[in-house]
């Protein structure tokens, strides 16, 4: 899925000018996956804003649940930016409204489809275990 939500204000973002690292901590498994972001490779996919945490996760081969296709119309892609928040775009009122519907919100909570780091520092992002859709089709 993916696309653009014409009913929201896009955040002001700045594309990274130099490589940086993002570490994804996957709470469900306890795994940490480090991904080196090369600005020239952005975007990695078609969901979320270009260069968003969701986009970077796709580049790292990590799936973040996103029921709305990454257009800030739900809160299923809620993550926690544990380090590097100062390098991220500011949350818009639309993102904050969506976060109000998320569970287990903390001061470092963001929607991964809207949070775009500028590459000025490395990030540590926690993907909560309830974010993962563990339902699988049988054979």
Label this structure with key terms.
139 residues, alpha+beta, 5 strands, 10% helix, 20% strand, globular
One letter per element, helices H and strands E, the order comes to: EEHEHEE
Number of strands: 5
Q: Which residues form runs of ≥5 with pLDDT under 50?
A: 132-136
Instruction: Give the % helix.
Output: 10-25%
| Count of separate structural domains | 1
> Rg, please?
14 Å
Number of helices: 2
Strand order of the largest sheet: 2-1-5-3-4
Strand content: 15-25%
CATH class identity: Alpha Beta
Task: Describe the oligomeric state of these chains in a short phrase.
Answer: single chain
- Kindly report the average pLDDT value: 90
> For this structure, what is the CATH homologous superfamily?
Beta-grasp domain
How would you classify the helix and strand content by structural class?
alpha+beta
Distance between the termini: 25 Å
CATH architecture: Roll
Can you put this structure into words, describing what you see?
The chain has 139 residues and is α+β, with helices and mostly antiparallel strands. The model is unreliable at 132-136 (pLDDT under 50). The chain is 10% helix and 20% strand. The chain is built from two helices and five strands; from the N terminus they run E-E-H-E-H-E-E. The protein has a five-stranded mixed beta sheet with strand order 2-1-5-3-4. The protein has one domain (20-131): Beta-grasp domain (Ubiquitin-like (UB roll), Roll). The protein has helices at residues 53-59, 93-99; strands at 20-26, 31-37, 78-83, 109-111, 123-127.
């Amino acid at each position: 899925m993916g696309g653009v939500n014409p009913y929201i204000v896009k955040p002001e973002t700045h594309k990274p000018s130099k490589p940086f690292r993002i570490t994804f901590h996957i709470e469900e498994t306890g795994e940490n996956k480090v991904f080196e972001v090369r600005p020239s490779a952005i975007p990695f996919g078609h969901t979320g804003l270009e260069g968003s945490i969701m986009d970077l996760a796709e580049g790292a081969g990590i799936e973040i649940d996103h029921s709305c296709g990454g257009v800030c119309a739900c809160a299923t892609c809620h993550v926690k930016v544990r380090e590097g928040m100062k390098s991220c775009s500011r949350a818009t009122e639309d993102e904050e409204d969506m976060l109000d519907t998320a569970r287990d919100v903390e001061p470092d909570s963001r929607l991964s489809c809207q949070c775009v780091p500028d590459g000025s520092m490395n990030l540590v992002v926690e993907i909560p275990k309830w974010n993962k859709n563990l339902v699988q089709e049988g054979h």
